[in-house]
Amino acid sequence: MRSKLTRRRFLAGTAAAGVTAVGVACPAIARAAEGQWGDLVGRFIYDGKAPERKKLTVDKDVDCCGKFDIRDESLMVGPDGGLANVFVYLRSRIAAVSTAVEKSLPKRVVLDNRDCIFQPHCMGVWYGKQEFLIINSDPVAQNVDFKPMGDTPANIVLPAYDAKKSPDKKVEATWKFAQAQFAPILIKCNYHPWESGYILIRSNPYHAVSAADGTFRIAKLPVGKLEFQLWHERVTYLDAPGWPKGRCEIAIRPDRNDLGTIRLAPTRLERKS
Amino acid sequence: MNDALAPNGLNPEPRTLNPFPALNPEPRTLTPFVCLLLALLAAGCRRAGPQFRLNMEGRPPESVSQQQAKAITEALTGLFGTPDEPKVSTGVDLDLELLRRASGPIAGAPGGQERGLFRRQCVTCHGVSGDGAGPTAAELDPYPRDFRNGVFKYTSTRGGVKPIMMDLRRTLYRGVAGTAMPSFAQLPEEEIDALLEYVKYFGVRGQTELYLFQMVVDDDGALPLDQSQVMEEGVLPAAQSWFEPERRRAELVAKPPPRPPTDTPERLATSIAKGRELYLSTNSQCTKCHGPEGNGQGEQSELYDDWNKRKKGETPERTAELARFFTLPIERLRPRNLHEGVFRGGGTPIDLYRRVCVGIKGTPMPAAGSAPGVPGVLSDEEVWQVVEYVRSLGGSRQ
Amino acid sequence: MLLCATFPLIWIGGLVTTYRAGMAVPDWPNTFGHNLFLYPLESWLQVFDVLLEHSHRLIGAAVGLIAISLTIALWVSDRRPAGRWLGVAAVAGVCLQGTLGGLRVIQDEILLADVHGCTAPLVFSLAAAMVAYTSPAWRSAGRGVTKGDRHLAALGASPPGEKGDRHLAALGASPLLSVAPATAVLIYVQIVLGAQLRHLTPGQAAGWFTLWMWLHLIVLGLLVLAVVWLLALTRRRFGREPMLVRRGRLLAAVFAVQVVLGTATWVTHYGWPAWFTQSIWAIEYTVVANGPLQALTTTAHVVVGSLTLVSAMSLSLWSRRLVSATR
Q: Which single residue of A271, B99, B301, B317 could bond B86 by disulfide (Cβ 3.0 to 4.6 Å)?
């Protein structure tokens, strides 16, 4: 999505000081070229008592999967109220990326079929620059099914991991995305219906998933006004205080930008369907 | 998702099966008497042709505002035209001549049929919008194909990509045995070409439409639309996805290797036995749906294809609620009973090879063969062995 | 003769719809600019659609001429006023059909094709009624002597008129008089419902077809009961009246054929239904679009539908006639 802020900044700049120190196309890039990047951090807190996670029906491959305590992962709240698995990402389509970030980025984003669930439950990938690697660490065949809008749908079968025969040879599949998506997409397993995961495919590295304690960090964003989106699987676009429809425009300053604690009332995370 | 915006009705054409659309009057379904009178009185007046319906599958009608619906419809009409007058944008490699022959009202010429091929042969099942919800669709099991997301079941392409034209041509020539999809082998070649082009057109248009819905409705995008963004992120990727398998034939099209010899009874028996072993193995997971006996009574009893999956809710009450958002009621998918020997995508050895190797797109049947980046579960030879086993179950018919 | 000429017209009309050749010739009453009767033979025979549509028009014109000459003959020879007006009605019917057909093409309107198809059996029935009306048996029935009476007389039984009156008097009170016309009307309803299944507009909502289909099946059930009842009635109660017995049997036979054709029509269009292939017998059948089997069974179903209507109508007319003969 082309950022509206480029036009606004341009008008504001000329109106205010009549000084155009920025390029015509993207002031954010010009600024960033000067070497100014900022991190965005914050923490999500579930402001209430976390309900008990429902036990999911494990009725397939029971001899292998039945021994795990598989529960619903749609609302993961830590002991001190930290809300995990909230996606925070940059809505703008175009944004400068520092070479440092590009270099430090992990080459692969890994989805592991382990203990009969997808691990991690939520992840993000910068398509074109990062490889999406899917492995199977389970002794049963697994399936990974996801359908990115406007891109090739996937329905991948991974044979079982034989720990005895070939312990260091895990079955791998790599997948290439051709397009960014507006929001995270669902990953399902056709063999084991209780499994689910979410992946966000973007055209830049500016996305993060909140950790178990609710904290997140997006490193080295270009300084300037940028619009961010919050997303959670229970409600999709996550309405939060100051974030109508999960959106907020934040002026990113150099170094550290701390959003502080964002408290979410339980009603904000009530499933719509 | 989004806060409910202006809950206006957005599309005058009824989406439901309600045959008495008193609230959503459809021009052609007034009582016959009144129609007769009007028709006779309106001599010389031409009514506007049918229009494409918006793809509201799975969306509550109130979730899309009239303004958004209008923006999407106008964008699509500007890019792709109407059922009577199709359009092709620059960068989209579709043959307008063929599209014209397929589209529009049925019109004859001294030399043969000029236009309206789709309306003549296909529309009663597939619908004017290619949505698989034509007039007769509700009575069919399985439902006619919804062309709009470009997913087809009986293909030869790996990795989930679009089918090659030969796959669709094959379906048109042979029909789909055991379903209402006829064989169009009687049609001349040019007419089949035109129909195939029109199906591709539906695919490109449909994918663009889905993109527009995501952009405008789901993501609450700004209006008026940025046309260059729509082209760059919606139309062109959609169009190019249809040419990808042709471009990368070697890696994306599953060309069955020569069938291993089964001339002697011993060889055949060995092949079948190996095939049975693979069929029953946990890696291939065939028994999950098709059952250990191959009679379709596997563990997974409630299966749905992609077009019906979304209609299923967690509870029966939820499913009943969801029905409001879809045109046709939910229809279950039945894993094939391999003993019947009736295979919809064709029962020849090569057909079965393709089914096992690349799977059946849009259904839970996965690809057992390899794809770019994906090692697959069965090697080429193993796929043939499974095919021999499957054929032995049904009593070799072809 | 009118009846015999109208019969192929209905066949070809059915084929036109089956092959969806209704708009093969976009102008009317000319054919691609040529006069109807002067369209070059090679061009006419070259394209299948044009062959169907153009032949339909030519035969229609022929039927019109026959109707006109028949009416003139009736006015001249037959003194009964009803007969004359029947003739006029027949001409009017054929003219209406022609106009409807022409308008259908000019307007490119499927609804008009629908109406055209629904009024065709009525015109056909009218022609059949004229056959009955102008037959000698009709007149002699009017004089109180029926075939049944003559049959009895031949057996040496009581003189004509006496016993005849008794069993025909029974006829007067019989439900046959109401059931037979009701059946004819129901058959016509069935034809109209069938026409709705054939003439579908592209943008129609899916629910309409389902509605027509279910109604068509419900009326089928009612018709099965009615036809069986009529067959029983004519055989048992009026076994001595061959006119009625024969018509009862004819109706039952034609109806049975129609039911078989109806099933075949569905299967050749949409394949064996899922509930059948899943639970009863998994037949491997692929529908062949525009295939000969599909086209013939569908068109035959349409035509035999008109025949069924005519059989029922004939039975009604004759039963009424024989009653009025006793009064």
A: B99
End-to-end CA distance of chain B: 52
Does C161 or C86 have the greater pLDDT score?
Answer: C86
- Record: contact B226-A2, CB cut-off 8 A: yes
Closest to A151 measured CA to CA, from A174, A181, A128: A181
CB pair distance less than 8 Å for C200 and B184: no
| Contact status of C166 with chain B (Cβ, < 8 Å) | no
Phi, psi of A252 (to 5 degrees): -85, 125
- Asked if residues B383 and B352 have their Cβ atoms less than 8 Å apart, the reply is no
pTM of the model: 0.85
Residue A219 — φ and ψ, nearest 5°? Answer: -90, 145
Contact C70, C77 (CB under 8 A): no
What percentage of chain B reaches a pLDDT higher than 70?
87
Q: Are B344 and B152 in contact (CB under 8 A)?
A: no
Q: Which of B374, B378, B382, B386 to mutate to test the interface with A (most CBs of A within 10 A)?
A: B374
Nearest CA among B183, B395, B295 for reference residue C278: B295
Residue A222 CA: distances (Å) to CA of A40, A87, B396, C87, C322: 11, 19, 66, 92, 101
CB contact under 8 A, B187 and C290: yes
What's A37-269's CATH class?
mainly beta
Residue closest to C15 by CA, chosen among C3, C2, C24:
C24
Q: Identify the residue with better confidence: C169 or A227.
A: A227
Which stretches of chain A sit within 8 Å of chain B by CB?
1-2, 4, 59-61, 140-141, 143, 145, 147, 149-160, 171-176, 178-179, 182-183, 190-191, 235-237, 245, 272-273
Q: Which chains touch A (3 or more CB pairs under 8 A)?
A: B
- What residues of chain B lie within 8 A of the CB of A140, using their CB? 282
Residue A238 DSSP code: -
Contact A191 B229 (CB under 8 A): no
C-chain residues near B13 (CB < 8 A): 203, 205
The full set of domains in chain B, from first to last, is: 27-249 (no CATH), 254-300+335-394 (1.10.760.10)
Domain locations along chain C: 1-134, 174-327
Q: Compute CA distances B292 → A223, A236, B271, B342, B365, whole Å.
A: 61, 40, 18, 18, 16
Name the C residues in 55-84 with CB < 8 Å from any B CB.
none
pLDDT in tens, A151-180: 999 989 898 888 888 788 788 899 999 889
**Lowest-pLDDT choice from A55-69, B165-179, C215-229, C239-253:** C239-253
Type of residue found at B96:
L
Q: What residue type is A200 in one-letter code?
A: L
ipTM of the complex: 0.83
Residue of A nearest to B206 (CA): A150
Chain A hits for B238, CB-CB cut-off 8 Å, are 150
pLDDT at position B38: 53
* pLDDT value of position A210: 95
Closest chain A residue by Cα to residue B221: A1
Say which residue the tokens 């170094």 belong to: A255
- Rounded distance, CA C249 to CA C229, Å? 11
Q: Detail the DSSP E strand segments found in A24-90.
A: 37-46, 87-90
Domain ranges of chain A: 37-269
Q: Does B323 touch chain C (CB under 8 A)?
A: no
pLDDT score of C139 more than 70? yes
Out of B28, B46, B340, closest to residue C204 by CB: B28
Residue C205, number of CB atoms within 10 A of its CB: 25
CB contact under 8 A, C206 and B138: yes
pLDDT of residue C39: 74
Minimum distance, in Å, between the CA of residue B76 and any CA atom of chain C: 18
